[in-house]
């Protein structure tokens, strides 16, 4: 298997010592064990928070997995530091503006207790803070956008408010410290353990060195893996490596799924909000790419059969317009002089037409990554201009000039999300890798559940959904069975105190397509936060749980107590 990163004994120590004196290591040198630090918080942090901080768990990345890990660890009494690259925590649900993609049983048995609390919180926010109609307010399963991609399409800001409220008790008590707009820039690694991670504030460029006995990589792209020289995998594996029926003949490490710069639109009939014609509009309008049926179609079109079947009509409010809609105006009764945000439908644009598959953000120079993001925004603007001016209308006309960007929905000036929607990350080389044959019925045609993992630490379900890739592979949407999250997929083959808490667990290019969705990422993070607390309390390493059945069973019982199911019911509700 193609792996990046090798053990080097010490990594980054010289760089750390040159910049600032590193405090004494916070890990106790107990053979086979890691003990928690109980260092007190530094008082009166200087501007820019330059200096050092210590905790029981440092989480790099404030997405859904990071927030769930922080919540679980703090709930169990740990002191936690969580960093976030942007000013919004919540990852794909907030800063990336993607309504939750979920399983068919999510309303009852398909997620952890805390994830279901998050969903209930979003509905309660609308009931108490927005001008819902009486009928909408009484709907137990309120879907504020009445979208059909999810049972609960809501505004990114609302999801952000609910997540912050869930974490607020621990922030106020001092157990949890969130460092927003901080990015990991270096790591101090001794043998197979991370000693510290240095993060930098985006505006002030001031550094903070974070110490802990455990670190979680909850970044969207698995950024800690190369910084710590942890072995990882990228792109598509070969069939010889994974024995997956749909794996590649040869490994393609650079072949990753498209990312998307989502944007929010409202529609105002009879008004004119056409943007300036993008300078590269002709390029995107005329670009043709092959689809799953082998036929080449223009990117900016609804010519491809599935797109033609779905269609788009903001006037009739059908097709892709309602697909990821987060505000359905019919559910609200805004006052004439207030509540303007609910007078019109608002939809998040995240389709194949704005998937950016023309370059990767993984293992490229920062300047290259920024160029790719800029190009993805240019593609999005070209799509918007096409929808406003040239897109075919059912009545024979062209374009809807009343389409209008909604920057306030995204919390940005340009109307795009704060961060790209990431579908595929670096993936840790794990003790166990979930493969296609583990989650499909190919090997067991009569099966109703995926392969059973005795070390399960959670559940999930979603189709093996792969979007267009950087090598031009068209999307794949394979059927899967309700599956489990094995502990082995959360354990790096070598590193002892670094755990993946996002899309960077031990999965393949194919199974990443079904493990990357909202409730599963939350479950991964929650299990990681609980695992750290368990190991600190028992003074054992995470990998010991896979070798000692008594430890594993004790941990699984604690997860069950906290509302983290490890098994799907034998008979699933219809």
Q: What can you see in these coordinates?
A:
The protein is an alpha+beta fold and about 575 residues long. Helix content is about 25%, strand content about 15%. The chain has 16 helices and 26 strands. It has a 5-stranded mixed beta sheet with strand order 1-6-7-8-2, with helices on one face. Strands 5-4-3-9-26 form a 5-stranded parallel beta sheet. Strands 17-18-12-20 form a 4-stranded antiparallel beta sheet. The longest helix is centred in the middle third of the chain and has 24 residues. The chain starts with 9 loop residues before the first strand and ends in a 13-residue tail after the last helix.
Task: Provide the descriptors you would attach to this structure in a database record.
574 residues; alpha+beta; 5-stranded mixed sheet; 5-stranded parallel sheet
Distance between the termini: 40 Å
Secondary structure class reads: alpha+beta
Strand tally is: 26
Strand residue content:
15-25%
In this structure, how is the largest beta sheet organized? Answer: 5 strands, mixed
Average pLDDT taken over every residue: 92
Low-confidence parts: 7-49
What is the topology, as strand order, of the major beta sheet?
1-6-7-8-2
Number of helices: 16
| Overall spatial form | globular
The percent of residues in helical segments reads 25-40%
Topology:
Blueprint: E1 10-11, H1 13-19, E2 51-54, E3 57-60, H2 64-75, E4 80-84, H3 113-129, H4 134-138, H5 156-173, E5 176-180, E6 182-190, E7 193-201, E8 207-211, E9 214-217, H6 224-227, E10 232-233, H7 239-242, E11 259-260, E12 263-267, H8 281-286, E13 288-290, E14 296-298, H9 305-310, E15 312-313, E16 318-319, H10 320-323, E17 325-327, E18 346-349, E19 355-356, H11 366-389, E20 403-405, H12 407-410, E21 427-428, H13 436-439, E22 456-460, E23 464-466, E24 476-478, E25 483-486, E26 498-500, H14 512-515, H15 518-538, H16 549-561
Parallel strand pairs: 2-8, 3-4, 3-9, 4-5, 9-26
Antiparallel strand pairs: 1-6, 6-7, 7-8, 10-21, 11-19, 12-18, 12-20, 13-14, 15-16, 17-18, 22-25, 23-24
């Amino acid at each position: 298997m193609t792996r990046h990163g090798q053990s080097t004994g010490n990594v980054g120590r010289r760089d750390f010592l040159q910049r600032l004196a590193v405090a004494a290591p916070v890990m106790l040198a107990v053979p086979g064990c890691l003990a928690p630090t109980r260092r007190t918080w530094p008082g009166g942090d200087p501007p820019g928070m330059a200096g050092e901080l210590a905790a029981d768990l440092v989480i790099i990345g404030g997405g859904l997995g990071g927030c769930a890990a922080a919540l679980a660890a703090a709930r169990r009494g740990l002191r936690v530091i969580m960093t976030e690259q942007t000013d919004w925590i919540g990852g794909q649900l907030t800063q990336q503006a993607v309504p939750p993609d979920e399983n068919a049983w999510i309303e009852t048995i398909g997620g952890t207790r805390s994830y279901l609390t998050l969903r209930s919180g979003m509905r309660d926010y609308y009931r108490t803070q927005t001008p819902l109609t009486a009928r909408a307010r009484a709907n137990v399963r309120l879907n504020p956008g009445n979208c059909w991609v999810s049972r609960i399409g809501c505004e990114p800001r609302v999801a952000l408010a609910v997540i912050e409220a869930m974490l607020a008790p621990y922030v106020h008590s001092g157990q949890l410290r969130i460092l927003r707009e901080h990015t990991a820039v270096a790591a101090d690694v001794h043998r197979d353990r991370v000693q510290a991670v240095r993060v930098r504030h985006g505006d002030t460029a001031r550094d903070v060195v974070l110490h802990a006995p455990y670190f979680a990589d909850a970044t969207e792209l698995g950024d800690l893996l190369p910084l710590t020289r942890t072995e990882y995998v990228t792109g598509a594996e070969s069939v010889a490596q994974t024995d997956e029926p749909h794996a590649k003949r040869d490994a393609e490490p650079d072949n990753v799924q498209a990312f998307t710069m989502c944007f929010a639109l409202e529609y105002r009939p009879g008004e004119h909000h056409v943007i300036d014609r993008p300078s590269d509009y002709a390029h995107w309008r005329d670009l043709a790419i092959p689809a799953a049926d082998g036929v080449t179609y223009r990117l900016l079109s609804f010519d491809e059969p599935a797109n033609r079947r779905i269609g788009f009509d903001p006037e009739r409010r059908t097709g892709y317009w309602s697909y990821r809609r987060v505000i359905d105006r019919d559910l609200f009764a805004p006052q004439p002089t207030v509540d303007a945000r609910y007078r019109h439908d608002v939809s998040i644009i995240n389709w194949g037409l704005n998937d950016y598959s023309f370059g990767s953000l993984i293992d490229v120079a920062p300047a290259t990554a920024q160029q790719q993001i800029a190009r993805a925004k240019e593609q999005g603007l070209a799509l918007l201009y096409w929808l406003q001016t040239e897109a075919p209308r059912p009545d024979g006309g062209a374009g809807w000039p009343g389409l209008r960007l909604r920057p306030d929905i995204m919390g940005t000036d340009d109307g795009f999300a704060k961060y790209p929607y990431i579908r595929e990350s670096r993936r840790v080389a794990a003790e166990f890798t979930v493969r296609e044959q583990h989650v499909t019925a190919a090997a067991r045609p009569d099966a109703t559940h995926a392969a059973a993992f005795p070390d399960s630490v959670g559940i999930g379900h979603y189709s093996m959904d792969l979007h267009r890739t950087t090598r031009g592979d068209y999307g794949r949407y394979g059927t899967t069975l309700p599956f489990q999250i094995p502990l082995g997929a959360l354990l790096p083959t070598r590193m002892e105190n670094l755990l993946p808490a996002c899309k960077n667990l031990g999965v393949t290019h194919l199974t990443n397509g079904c493990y990357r969705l909202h409730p599963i990422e939350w479950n991964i993070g929650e299990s990681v936060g609980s695992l750290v607390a368990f190991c600190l309390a028992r003074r054992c390493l995470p990998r010991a749980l896979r070798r000692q059945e008594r430890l594993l069973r004790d941990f699984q019982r604690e997860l069950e107590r906290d509302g983290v199911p490890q098994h799907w019911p034998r008979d699933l509700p219809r």
